[in-house]
Amino acid sequence: MITAQKADCTLGCIKRRVASRLREGILPLCSALVRPHLESCIQLCSPLHRKDMDLLERIQRRATKAIRGLEHLSYEERLRELGLFSLEKRRLRGDLSEAFQYLMGAYKKDLLSRACCDRRRDNGFRLKEGRFRLDIRKKFFTRRVVKHCNRLLREAVDAPSLATLKVRLDGALSSLM
Length: 177
Prior knowledge:
This protein has helices at 2-17, 23-45, 50-65, 75-82, 87-103, 141-151, 154-157, 162-175. The chain is mainly alpha-helical. The protein has 2 domains: 2-84, no CATH class; 90-175, no CATH class. 18% of the residues are buried.
């Protein structure tokens, strides 16, 4: 993947050119130069294969390992220490915020539809899950997002705005680590 190569080359340049391995030096550079390549690939290309996701995650793993003092920690502990999410969780956060915008009427197309169920004890927010015969459709946005939207907490579903939803999603996703 070309985007992964760009992110990898940029990370290599940062590691070669920056003498300080302190968090204050490496983290802003990686957040500004490397992470946008990875996130654009996650959201736009939506990798279908596990090996592509692992390739992108490996680049982020190398970037977090370049910070002095965090080398001995596991990847999940480094992410928690830096206040970051894995790329899969970032993709899930983006998907859920897009689904929220669709359901609030920000877009004209009807990609997602609510299931009619008023007597539920969960969040009261159900989306219809479509049936597809082809395996390739399992990775589509409409299929990926339904399962996670139906599992959200009531507080996240009842968010009055997108900004509130994102804050609530961050709290929910950080507890999943």
